[in-house]
Design goal:
210 residues, alpha/beta, TIM Barrel, eight-stranded parallel β-barrel, 8 helices, 18% strand
């Protein structure tokens, strides 16, 4: 059973790889205040489930909080226990997707080829995460998009930032995962707030040109 992405004014996922639990509240707080409504904490971060639980307590119900680099059904269960509602993975594992759907999670598995993209779509993924997008490029994603079911949410992750939104949007990308352009370990909440403001302004400009 597919769990669709909720309506989002800006379909941008903030990827907080490397964030520590004691930093989470401040950084997630400024991201939400800036207008971001989807936040991913990869499981190769320090004590990630503690950070996810803290973010989930802080966020309103309209904000997706979840995990990235989810590889096992046990990870999905722990994510659910922590209050997460978004499951992002680097690959397609149909058992992992099925478990996430059982928990009512929005799912965004990583794909690179038409075969992977079609498998993920058939498996009920909420959206497709083309990764690394910088290798495929906007034209590569656009070519694969031509064979995908109409209306599927297509996200670009890896090498996308406020510098190239327009290029990918023109190729049919409808969502973005933003990592180091938005957050790097060691950044303060004030640093992230500035980057979030710049990112949102760039996205709004790119959409306005469409």
């Amino acid at each position: 059973m597919t769990v669709p992405f909720p309506p989002m004014k800006r379909p941008l996922v903030a990827i907080l790889r490397g964030i520590k639990p004691d930093e989470t509240e401040a950084i997630v707080g400024v991201l939400i205040a800036a207008g971001l409504t989807a936040i991913e904490i990869p499981l190769n971060s320090p004590d990630p489930f503690r950070s996810i639980a803290g973010a989930a307590r802080l966020a309103p119900s309209s904000v997706l909080i979840g995990a990235g680099t989810v590889l096992t059904t046990a990870d999905v269960d722990r994510l659910h226990e922590a209050g997460g509602t978004l499951m992002v993975s680097p690959n397609i594992d149909t058992e992992v997707l099925a478990r996430a759907h059982q928990h009512g999670m929005v799912t965004l598995p990583g794909v690179f080829s038409p075969t992977e993209a079609l498998l993920a779509a058939r498996s009920g993924a909420s959206g497709l995460k083309f990764f690394p997008a910088s290798v495929l490029g906007a034209s590569g994603i656009a070519a694969i998009r031509a064979v995908l079911p109409a209306g599927v949410l297509i996200a670009a992750v890896g090498g996308v930032s406020d510098q190239n939104f327009a290029e990918y949007i023109a190729g049919g990308v409808t969502a973005f995962g933003l990592g180091s352009s938005l957050y790097k370990p060691g950044m303060s909440a004030a640093d992230v707030a500035v980057r979030a403001k710049v990112t949102i302004a760039a996205y709004d400009r790119a959409i306005a040109k469409e």
